[in-house]
Amino acid sequence: MERDEELLLAVLNSAPVLGGRVSDHIDGPSGRELAQSWGGTGTADESDRLRRARDVLHSVIRGPESPAIDALAGLVDAVVRTPRVTPDGVVWDLQAPDDDRLAVDVVLAWSSVVAAFPGRLRACANDECNLFLVDHSRPGTAKWCSMATCGNRMKARAHADRSSS
To answer: Distance of alpha carbon 120 from its chain centroid, rounded?
Structure first.
């Protein structure tokens, strides 16, 4: 599960807001590094599929009633998983084109994370942030991707608003 969560967050958080603008870390050398670190090919086609999966997941996580859920189905339509019995149990082998595999892995990781932590995968509550988090806090009330950055900013703004009233 930990690997699924790490992969999912690495891809979801590959479009941070820097200097007030969304940057795309799936493009260029950093994108190839990201893909290859997760077993991807690093090709331009894989980057396009990974970006599409990321953007669709952003929409689904922000509003699960959105039509983006149909787009998720399109990402995995041609994928086949077959069971293989090993001495350690059943292993599911994924059959997908090489350039689709990483995007499919991300969608499968999303599915695993939302099943294991229902309601805990969410976008940062800072409207100026484009990052996501999996809330592991006991009460399940975490709001920010990082308390040190977004949480501190939002609390400082709330304090300033209260003080100026």
So the answer is: 13
